Every structure is written in C-alpha cells, then in structure tokens.
Amino acid sequence: MARTPRAPWTKPNPRKRAGKASTHLTPAEKATAKARARRAGWRYPNLVDNMRVAANKAANTKTSGRKRAAMSKTKRRPASSAKKPSAKPATKRAVPRATATARKTRGHAQEKDPRGGLTAAGRRAFAERDGAHLKPGVKKAVSQMTPSEMRRKGSWAVRFYGRKQLPPLVDAEGRPTRLALSAHAWGEPVPRTVKAARRIAAKGERLLARYHRIKDRGARSPR
C-alpha cells in the first residue's frame, strides 16, 4: 500500500531539531512567493510557496558556490598543466545521461494533458512537490453541480479569463495556448478570441453568484 506523504506543516522544523537558527525570506523573496500563490489561486502567506522559494534560493546558492570554486581552481592551474583536447570518441557515459534527460522530458509531458490541464500523474506530482491538493476540472451541467463545485468552476473561470489583460490565446501558428486549452479540462469550448474567453468568465461570475445565494439561504434557514 502506497504511503501518503505528510504535509510539510505537520512535520517538525528540521533546522530547529538540529539546533540551527531559522532563516527568513527577504522582501524580494516574499514577493516572489506571493506571486506564486496568486498564479496558483490560493491565499498568501502560506508555507508551501515560502518553502519553494527558500529551496530555489538554496539551490542557486549551492550552484554559485560550485561555479566560484571551479573558476578559482582554473585560475590556479598553470598554463602548462592545461589539458589538451582529446581525440578520443565520446565515452559511453554520455548515452545514459541523454537517456535520463529524455526520460525526464517525457515525464513532464505526461504530467500535462495535451488537450488541456493536468493528468492524474501531474496532480500527484504537484502534491508531492508542493503539497498542493489539486482536483480535476468540473465538467458537470450546472443543475448537477454541488455548491462547492460551483465555487471551484466559477473561481477558475474568473481567474483565467476574467483578468483585465488576457495573455495570448493562440500562438504564432494559430494553435491554442495552454491558457486556452485549460477550458477543455473544465468542459468548456477552447476560446480562440478574447470575446469567447469573456463568455466563459461571465459564466463563472454567474456560478459564483449562484453559489453565494445558496450559501446565504443556508445561513438564514432555521436549524
């Protein structure tokens, strides 16, 4: 039976357990984390986006340190000890590396549905990497939706197609972008024009209004 990964906020702080002082994000890094949360459609501050920014910072610092060490080593090496270009053919080690890169590329491709949205494997990958609990898009008719599904689909439609300045919906060759293809994952026609995208946003606003009416009616009903 597969073991469900624990959410990061349920685990003890590893730095505190090791007796190390906690680190804090800079204002610029907090702005980056806030932008990540806004793109994902959830509230900020939250631990997931802060952890992702902190992890990227640590990775960049480690990479920079390696580059500085390599450059310093190159400067110290005498000119006479510089390696001459080898005429030998490429070693066999290059083949597994290329294979690993291709395998990684295929894995990312499998996470995204070519018709739009994420696959089940993509949602699992986000859960493992960021702790996000993503669900498939709602494709039901309005009469069959629960209030929660109305809220989800309405929020998606307004966030994606109700923004003031829409990103491109088609590329230079006239093919729909990932933004436009997202509509297919939610059971809507893929928009190719701003007018079509605004129609989906208007539908989302109606769903949100209906959700709030149901919620208010439930709050007013006697218990």
Give a summary of the structure in a few sentences.
This protein is an all-alpha fold and 223 residues long.
SSE layout and pairings?
Layout: H1 14-17, H2 27-40, H3 47-76, H4 94-111, H5 120-130, H6 147-161, H7 178-185, H8 194-220
Helix pairs in contact: 2-3, 6-8
Task: Considering the chains and any ligands shown, give keywords for the structure.
globular, mainly alpha, 223 residues, 57% helix
Range of helix content: 55-70%
Structural class: mainly alpha
Strand content: under 5%
Our measurement of the CA-to-CA distance between the termini, rounded to an integer number of angstroms, reads 42 Å
Question: Strand count, sense and closure of the main sheet?
Answer: none
How much is the average pLDDT?
78
DSSP, total strands: 0
Low-confidence stretches: none
Number of separate helices: 8
H/E element sequence:
HHHHHHHH
Q: Compute the gyration radius: what is it? A: 24 Å
Shape field = globular
Description:
With 223 residues, the chain is an all-alpha fold. 57% of the residues lie in helices and 0% in strands. The protein is globular. The relative contact order is 0.07. The mean pLDDT is 78.
